[in-house]
Write a structure and sequence with these properties.
Two copies of one chain form a homodimer. Chain A has helices spanning 3-26, 31-42, 54-74, 77-109, 114-123, 129-138, 145-174, 179-213, 219-237, 242-253, 270-298, 309-331, 337-346, 351-363, 369-396. Chain A is an all-alpha fold and 405 residues long. Chain A has a single domain (58-301, 324-396), classed as Na+/H+ antiporter like fold. The interface between A and B is large, with 54 and 54 residues.
C-alpha cells in the first residue's frame, strides 16, 4: 500500500478517536466508548470511509498488548493481600456468577453450541480496571475501604479473566473441549505466569543496568517495547493470547511487584519505575486508540438483522445476567448495605477487557455477527450505566466514608 | 502477514538497533552508525534473517518523518540571526561547494547522467545537526562563539538541504530537469514553507486549548502525531517529500519559532513546548531506529561488485570533495585559524540527513546499487572521522575558548 494513503488512514483514525473520546467525555461517558463509536462511524457500519488494512491491524495489535502492559504495570499485587478475603470473595463471585449464568443462558435458553456459550460466559466475566479506577477517582472514593475492596477484586478478576481467555482460546484453536487441552493450557499459562514475571524482572534489571550506564538516548522506550513484544510473542508461542504476555511483563515491572523468592531482584526502584511510566505512557496513549477504533471498524452493524427478535431478546437476557452477576458479588460480603451496592455496581463495567474477549471470539469465527453485535451492546451498556448509578448511590448515601483531601 | 511473525521482526529490529548503537558508542562512534550496521548485519548483505516487509517499511517512514519533526522542533531560527553573517557564509559555502564539486566529479569525471550527478551533489550538502550538536556538547564547546556559528550554519544547511531535496525529488518524479518544474517546485515548497508553519501554529494553538480543557488523557501524543502526519501527507500532496512536512511542523512548534506576522499566535509557551518535547521524545526514539535499521536492510552489499575499480575510485573522490567542501566553508570566514578548522571539521558529518537523501535516490531508482553503496560509504566515513579529528584539534589548541561550567 502507498505510504501516502497509509499516513492518511492513520491520521483519520487518531483524529476521529480523539474527537469522539472528547465528545463521550462531555456526555460523562467513558472515552473508550467514543473511540469504539469512531470506528463504527468510519467503518462499514456507517460511512464506509476506512477499512482496517493490515498495517493498521498490526499497530492495533501492538496497541492492545501495550494497554495490557500498562494495566499490569498499574496492578498492585500487595493491595490484594491487604483488602484480603473480601476482595477474593467479590472477585470469585463476580467472575463465577456471570460466567455460569452467561453460559447457561446461551446454552440452555438459546441453544447456542457449547464453545460459543463458554465464550459468551467468558466475555461477561471481565471487570475493566481502567474504567472502575477512573470512576472511583472521579468521585473521590478510590482510597476508601470499599474502594480498596473493589480494586483488589478488579485486579484478581483481570488475572482470572485472562487465564480463562487463554483457556477458551486454546479450546477454539484445538476445535474442541477435552481434558488434555485443559490440563495443557493450565500448565502452560501457569508456567508462563510463574516464570514470565521472574524472567521479565531479570531482563528489567539488565535494562536498568544499561539505562544507568548508557549515554545513547532512547533506551527505555525501545527496550521496554522490545521486552513487551518478546513476552507477547512468547505467550503466543506457548498457546496463550499475546496480550497475556504484555500483562505479565507489566506485572513484573510494576512498582509494587515483589518476587516471592528473589529479594535480590528488587530492581524496580521508584525512580526507575517512574521513568518507565513517564516514557511508556505516551507510547501506550498513541497505540491504544488504534485498537479500539479498529474494533469499531471490524464491526459491521449493517450485517446484523435488527428485525430479528433473537438479537433483542439475547442482548437483554445477557445484560440482566451481566449486571446481576456482579451485583451478587457485592451483596454476598459483609459490609454496610450501601457499600455492598457500591461495590457490586463498580464491578459491572466490562470495558476494554470485555471487548478484547468479544473481539477474539469474532476473529476466531466463534461469534457470529449477531452474537458479536449482541455482546458489544451488552459490554457498551455495562460500561455506560454504572457511572450514572454510582453517582445516584453516592448522593443517596452521603454518610459513606470519603477520601481525605 | 502473521501478527506473531511481525512482532518478532519488530522485536529483533529494535533489539539489534540498541545493541549495535551501544557498541558504536563504546567505540566512540555515533550511535546512528550502529543502527545502520545492525540493518546491514540482519539483512541480505550478511545474515539474511530479516527482510523489510511492508508494515515495517511504513513504520520506518513514520520514524523518519518524526525524526525530522524533532530536528525542526530543535531548530532555533533566532540563533541564526545572532551568529549572523558568519553562519550564513559557512552554510552557503558548506552547501554550495560540496554540491557543485560533487556534481562536477560525477558528471565530468565519471560521466554519470545529469540527474544522478545532481543527486550525488545533493547528498553531499547536508550537515547532520544531531551529530554535530552531540559532538560539540561532548567536548563542552557547544556554547562558545565557534559552537554558535556551527549551530547556526547547520540549521541553515538543513533548510537548504531539505529544499534542494524537494527540488531534486520533483525532477526525479517529472523525469527531467526543465525550468517549469524548477519554478513549480520553488513555488510549492516556498508556499508550503510559508504557510505550513502558520497553519501548524494555528493548529497547535487549538491543540493547546483542548489540552488545557481535556480530562481525557493522551491528547498530546495522538494529536501531535496527527499534526505531523497531516503535514507529511500535505507535503507529499504538494510534490515535496513527506519528511519536509514533519520538519515544517516541528519548526512551527519549536519554542523559539515566532511568526513574522502573528504576534497573537505565540502559543508555544515554555510549559506547552516542554510538554510536547517530553511526550514526543519517547515516540520519536521508538520509531527512529526502525528507519535506520530498515536503511541497512535495504542495502545489499552482496550485489556490489567490490572488485571493480570504479566504486573505490568513485568513493574516494567523493570523500575528498565531501571533506574539502565543508573545510572550505570554515576557512573562508574571519576567525582565528584554530576556530576555522574546528568549524569546518564540525560541518563534515552527513549522518541521517545524507542517508535520507541517498535512500530517496535509491528508492526512486536514480542511484544504482554501486553509486548508492559508494554514497553510503562516503556518508559513513564523513560521520565517523570528524569526532576523532575534533578531539585532536581541541587537544592541539588548548587556548580555544571553553564553555563556562
Amino acid at each position: 500500500m502507498e505510504t501516502h494513503q497509509f499516513l492518511l488512514i492513520l491520521l483519520i483514525i487518531l483524529l476521529a478517536a480523539r474527537v469522539f473520546a472528547e465528545l463521550a467525555n462531555r456526555l460523562h461517558l467513558p472515552p473508550v466508548i467514543g473511540e469504539l463509536v469512531a470506528g463504527v462511524v468510519l467503518g462499514p457500519s456507517l460511512l464506509g470511509w476506512i477499512e482496517p488494512v493490515e498495517p493498521i491491524k498490526l499497530m492495533a495489535e501492538i496497541g492492545i498488548i501495550l494497554l495490557l502492559f500498562k494495566v499490569g504495570l498499574g496492578t498492585d499485587v500487595k493491595r490484594l493481600a491487604k483488602t484480603g478475603l473480601q476482595s477474593v470473595v467479590v472477585a470469585l463471585v463476580g467472575f463465577g456468577a456471570p460466567f455460569l449464568l452467561g453460559f447457561s443462558v446461551g446454552y440452555w435458553v438459546f441453544g447456542i453450541p457449547l464453545l460459543v456459550s463458554l465464550f459468551i460466559g467468558g466475555t461477561l466475566t471481565a471487570t475493566s480496571i481502567g474504567i472502575t479506577v477512573r470512576v472511583l477517582a472521579d468521585f473521590g472514593h478510590l482510597n476508601t475501604s470499599e474502594g480498596q475492596t473493589i480494586l483488589g477484586a478488579a485486579v484478581l478478576d483481570d488475572i482470572l479473566g485472562v487465564v480463562l481467555l487463554a483457556l477458551l482460546y486454546e479450546f477454539s484453536i484445538g476445535g474442541g473441549t477435552n481434558l488434555n487441552n485443559v490440563a495443557k493450557v493450565i500448565l502452560f499459562v501457569g508456567t508462563f505466569f510463574v516464570l514470565a514475571p521472574v524472567a521479565a524482572k531479570l531482563m528489567s534489571s539488565i535494562i536498568k543496568h544499561f539505562d544507568e550506564k548508557s549515554s545513547v538516548p532512547g533506551l527505555i522506550p525501545t527496550m521496554i517495547v522490545s521486552l513487551v513484544l518478546f513476552f507477547a510473542w512468547l505467550a503466543d508461542t506457548m498457546g496463550a493470547p499475546m496480550l497475556l504476555g504484555g500483562f505479565a511483563a507489566g506485572l513484573a515491572l510494576s512498582r509494587r511487584f515483589f518476587l516471592p523468592f528473589g529479594a535480590g531482584l528488587h530492581v524496580a526502584t521508584p525512580a526507575f519505575a517512574e521513568n518507565i511510566d513517564t516514557k511508556m505512557t505516551p507510547i501506550v496513549h498513541l497505540f491504544t486508540p488504534i485498537f479500539f477504533v479498529t474494533v469499531g471498524l471490524s464491526l459491521n452493524l449493517q450485517e446484523v438483522d435488527w428485525g430479528s427478535s433473537f438479537i433483542w431478546f439475547f442482548s437483554l437476557s445477557l445484560l440482566v445476567v451481566a449486571i446481576g452477576g456482579k451485583l451478587l458479588a457485592g451483596l454476598v460480603i459483609r459490609q454496610p448495605w450501601p457499600s455492598r451496592w457500591i461495590i457490586g455496581t463498580a464491578m459491572i463495567p466490562r470495558g476494554e477487557v470485555g471487548i478484547v474477549f468479544a473481539e477474539l471470539g469474532r476473529e476466531s469465527g466463534i461469534f457470529s455477527h449477531e452474537i458479536y453485535a449482541g455482546m458489544i451492546m451488552v459490554i457498551a451498556l455495562t460500561t455506560l450505566l454504572p457511572p450514572f448509578v454510582m453517582q445516584v448511590l453516592y448522593y443517596s448515601f452521603p454518610l459513606l466514608e470519603k477520601e481525605e483531601t
